Amino acid sequence: MHDATEDAARTDRIQGVLLGAACGDALGVPYEFGSAPLGRGEVPRMIGGGLGPYAPGEWSDDTQMAVVIARVAAVRGLRTVDALDAIVTGWVDWLAAGATDVGTQTRQVLGAVAAEEARRAWSAAASASTGLHGRTGRTAGNGSLMRTAPVALAFLDDPAMLTLAARWVSEATHHDPLAGDACVLWCHAIRRAVLDGAVPDLAAVLGELPADRRDQWADWIADAERRTPSAFAPNGYVVTALQAAWSAIRHPVGDGPPLVASLGAAVHAGDDTDTVAAIAGALLGAVHGASSLPEEWLGLVHGWPGLRADDLRDLARRVAERGAADAAAHRVPDELVEVAEHLVARGLGEGHHFFVKGRPVPGGLSSEYIGIRALDDGSYEVWYSGDRGTPRALVETPDWAVARQGFVDEVESLASWRGDWRAQVGSPRHPRWWRRR
Question: How far, in Å, CA of 12 to CA of 365, rounded?
Fold first, then answer.
């Protein structure tokens, strides 16, 4: 039986994620890039202005983009390619109708998607971001980290899927892996805060990142814990934005409640104040809950597309509820996640060479691949799907070791036969799909 008090506290923390981010955003808007003076020790206020004609308490593009993600997540979850497409389409529509203070990189990518009118919006956006990175080498801005909080709410019960989805949503506009890393770290920190009600150890989630970048991120996190937020200005770079936000959480300013004091520190960091405060606010809201936000802020905070505090409460709750239902219905067994990650680490393409039932593939499935799934009776099926129609079963067994070996062998054989992967063909004991066509 669930404890009603703990359920209410967790709901408060869930609602605090979107509200904390929005309040941080609106609190930082007036002071962005020095738009309004902020004296040493002065408490930031929601006075409006900033880089646009913002009303007092009005949020900016940070929360606007997050709302698009949250609305998709609340209705259809974030597990499918269609959901990723809906997010990008929503951003394109937002850019045309309601966007304010849009980052240059985001505008370029979404503008390219709008011009192309592609059937698969996420793929088109990721391709445009990849092209931009190839031309400039600079796609590690803070624009994906600032909007990432709703992704955490969608996967409170599925940390493995959270790692994938956080990176996919980031890659829609920010190709650089560091932007994806930052989103993965922050989403896992938010998830842990919602579940535990405490400030998480950010270094403890480094295992979610590729091994070759963990030490560098550990150094960056430690540096943020040593120094105050202003040390990380300018903070338009995703790494310094995360450092400034984490530093603000670890180095609050003033004698007020922890959330208020840390958001004050985030704004005092200077430079991109609304974004740093939005990033910090999402995690602070996850720790302390919506109930920790001042009533004055909750009465003022609002923004595109005509939402206020209670609307964000409801939206956050619906995202989490949809995420919990999806996690229960679509859980991919750990052993299938592990074999997929094993193949990716070896350079084989998920969706191109192989497909694990239950794991979405943003780029779409090849016309020819090897698949694996867990059946309702606890056994496993490996199959081949190709140009000749009906998928062909290759292995069906209750023995995971047999299924895994058969799956890996078949994937390697397909890749080797295509000539696009340097694979050693497995043991001749295992039949090859091309011999049974």
Answer: 39
